[in-house]
Amino acid sequence: MTDTDSARALWVQRFPALARKDDPALEALAGRARLVEIPAGTRVFEPGARCETYLLVAEGSVRVQLLTESGRELVLYHVGAGDSCVLTTSCLLGGDRYPAEGLTETKVRAFVVAASDFDAAMERSGNFRRFVFARLGERLTAILARIEEIATGRIDNRLAALLLRLADEAGRVRATHRELAVELGTAREVISRHLKHFAEQGWISAGRGEVEIQDRAALERLCD
């Protein structure tokens, strides 16, 4: 299988809604999209930058975060396999600059679509418009829910839920206190204080850059 065939197969697998052969605009879009590999820890966009491409993530994860006036990083959402970035979509549609930054959390394989090709597909394909606006609506709903969670949710409940979500099969979470704080939109000291409490209760044990869950049931009860 050639590189072109492999890329086409990945496009069909991850974005079946964009692989309709009865839509010439989608066929043109698929043919012009470039498959790229981006190393982990790479900034794919930053505040104030112009949006010149539409990114469709095929493998890996991108974290989109905002730097507040106080200097604190706040995670807005993650873009995973089969998804697109709502800020990128918004900037392309409105001609605005990025208000936040996007960082690859893992190695990412993604399809890059030029802004001009995005505009052409939006104009010519109802299927593409439905794909774009459906994901825009889903992500906006999720962002509003996250804002409400940050504004009203208790940190201990949210921290317990985050540890359960990030834990591997052995119950280990490989993340620093700062990384957990960024994910929850709070200060590192707050996370450290709550992890210390969790450890005193026997629910976890914490080491350098790692947390091991000792009592999963207790954390699940805390989430209720």
Structure notes:
The chain has nine helices and eleven strands. It has helices at 3-14, 24-32, 86-94, 115-124, 126-152, 155-166, 177-184, 188-200, 216-223, and strands spanning 34-38, 43-45, 53-59, 62-67, 73-79, 83-84, 101-104, 108-114, 172-173, 204-207, 210-213. The strands form three sheets. Strands 1-8-3-6 form a four-stranded antiparallel β-sheet. It has a four-stranded antiparallel β-sheet with strand order 2-7-4-5. It is elongated and about 60 Å long. It starts with a helix and ends with a helix. The mean pLDDT is 89.
Briefly say what this structure is.
By secondary structure, this protein is α+β, with helices and mostly antiparallel strands. The chain has helices at residues 3-14, 24-32, 86-94, 115-124, 126-152, 155-166, 177-184, 188-200, 216-223, and strands at residues 34-38, 43-45, 53-59, 62-67, 73-79, 83-84, 101-104, 108-114, 172-173, 204-207, 210-213.
State the strand order across the main sheet. 1-8-3-6
Tell me the CATH superfamily of the largest domain.
Jelly Rolls
Strand content: 15-25%
Q: In the residues, how many domains can be counted?
A: 2
Structural class: alpha+beta
Task: Give the overall silhouette.
Answer: elongated
**CATH class call of the largest domain:** Mainly Beta
In the CATH hierarchy, the architecture of the largest domain is: Sandwich
Task: Indicate the low-confidence ranges by residue numbers.
Answer: none
CATH names the topology of the largest domain as Jelly Rolls
Radius of gyration: 20 Å
Q: Please estimate the helix content.
A: 40-55%
Mean pLDDT: 89
User: What is the tally of beta strands?
Assistant: 11
- How far is the N terminus from the C terminus? 49 Å
Write down the secondary-structure element order. Answer: HHEEEEEEHEEHHHEHHEEH
Task: Count every helix, treating DSSP H or I runs of 4 or more residues as helices.
Answer: 9
Largest sheet: 4 strands, antiparallel
